[in-house]
Amino acid sequence: MADGSIDLVQQVRAHLESLSAAGVLFVPRGEVVVRAPLRVAANPVVVAPAPEPEPDPFETRLRELEVLRTEVAACNKCSELFATRLQTVFGSGPLEAEIAFIGDAPGSDEDAQGEPFVGKGGDLLGRIIGACGYTHDRVYLFNAIKCRPPKNRTPTNAECANCRDFFRRQFDAVRPKHIFALGEFVSRLLTGQNATLTELRGKVHQYRGVPLICTHHPNDIEKDKTGRLKRETGFDMKLLLDTIGRAAPEAK
Ligand code: URA
Predict the structure, then answer these.
(1) What structural domains and CATH numbers belong to the chain?
(2) Does 16 score more than 70 pLDDT?
(3) Residue 35's pLDDT is what?
(4) Phi/psi at 231 (nearest 5 deg)?
(5) Which of 72, 89, 143 to mutate to test the pocket of ligand 1 (most atoms within 8 A of CB)?
(6) Which pLDDT does position 1 carry in this prediction?
């Protein structure tokens, strides 16, 4: 037939003719079994099941960050920080930011607002970011410790150990391309060196395979009336931009 189906009538006739040729002249009712004709499309279109889409690594990492943010917000490993913080301060910025600016721990303004570097030191950090030729939406800001230590005291070794895994997971999800470590505390933590900031500055270190440059903390630059820390931070920014392969900022 035109559509390729097998003609039932022809099939029955051929069967009866072959019975007749074999001498069978009578077939009792119900004895003839004819299989239902197969209707097969002339040009069958085979539709393969759609393959499962590959998980987008970008989406996976964004989800990991949201899971991590929830875990950090619920963390109570450091009883003193848990008891005194207003909230945890996670971090902000895009994945694969050209630069991650990393501080030690939130201060009172950050504790109140839940965002890193929103206080006085944050204003200066904003000027440093701008002088490097970036805007906030192109860099990642976060801290090694997610809770404000009371009276901004230095975080203890136990607090650093409790937060280390959160920090590493966050770092690995964000995968920044370069790191500017702000201040001696976080510079020592990330380089793993028991050294002064003077010894750590002026070199390109590595943290988890990412180039790391150490500089002064914005709060310390603010307090320094001699202008030395600001000048030295300018040198560190030049080293950072040389490492990235960008032009050095204009001196101000
Ligand atoms: N100092 C830091 O190290 N981090 C902040 O978020 C604010 C001040």
Answers:
(1) 59-244 (3.40.470.10)
(2) no
(3) 54
(4) -60, -45
(5) 143
(6) 43
